[in-house]
Amino acid sequence: MSSGAIMIWLVVLLSQTAILLAQDAQVFFLQTTVSVEETNDSSFTLNVRKTGNIDTSITILIAPIENIQSDFGVPYTQTREISAGNEVETFGTTWNIRNDDIPEGDEVFIFELSDLSGSEQVVISQAIVRVTILANDDA
């Protein structure tokens, strides 16, 4: 094998290794669905986990895909900083439900997890969770 061919092979190998290292960490919701009753003190928690190594801290956003201000307490988006490192990190974000007297069936909301840092170190692997507020008020 010529030195030029070895050099090309080495560059390809290093490039593939860099891609694997850059995508070493994953951030994801631990659940895909959550159900909660609408009462005066209702809340639910969306659990997120980070696995793998990241070299610098990142900021993630947990937000509904639509405006939910009438059904949820403020804030209705949340950010969380994930520290650099290799340890597994799990955390929950709690959301409060506003109770009302309006008869309504099940209400479904989709929450999305995204990386505000734009980091290439992290793959968001389970980015969607479906939250259902169960029917209440004699709907």
Q: How would you describe this structure in keywords?
A:
mainly beta; five-stranded mixed sheet; 1 helix
Q: Tell me the CATH superfamily.
A: CalX-beta domain
Structural class: mainly beta
Main sheet specs: 5 strands, mixed
For this structure, what is the CATH class? Answer: Mainly Beta
| Shape estimate | elongated
Distance between the termini: 76 Å
Number of E strands: 9
Rg for CA atoms: 21 Å
Low-confidence stretches: 5-22
Strand order of the largest sheet: 2-9-7-4-5
Helix content: 10-25%
Give the overall average pLDDT. Answer: 80
Shape-level CATH architecture = Sandwich
Count of helix runs: 1
Q: Indicate the proportion of strand residues.
A: 35-45%
Order of helices and strands: HEEEEEEEEE
**Please, how many domains?**
1
As for the CATH topology, it is Immunoglobulin-like
